[in-house]
Design a protein that fits this description.
The protein has 89 residues and is an alpha+beta fold. The protein is 24% helix and 21% strand. It has 3 helices and 3 strands, in the order αβββαα. It has a 3-stranded antiparallel β-sheet, covered by helices on one side. It starts with 15 loop residues before the first helix and ends with a helix.
Length: 89
Amino acid sequence: MNPATAAPGTAGSANPRSEESTMAHPFDDPEAAYRVLVNGRQQHSLWPDGIAVPAGWTPVFGPDTRDACTGYVEAAWTDMRPAPIRTVR
């Protein structure tokens, strides 16, 4: 194929989309450090360390390994219902 007639971004290089699909997402990296966040409804979230904590969430554990943070969530968040629902009788 003549590079002059090739589609933009394809001449002599790998497909940029295939390179993007192999990049790790920061929420899926098992080797990264994580924090556990809690919101006002006592819901927990695993959050990559180094990424800004979103408004309404507070760090309660970490930074630590993904496994340690997951263990913390499993031990601390035993009732998945939001706090306001748990208190209704």
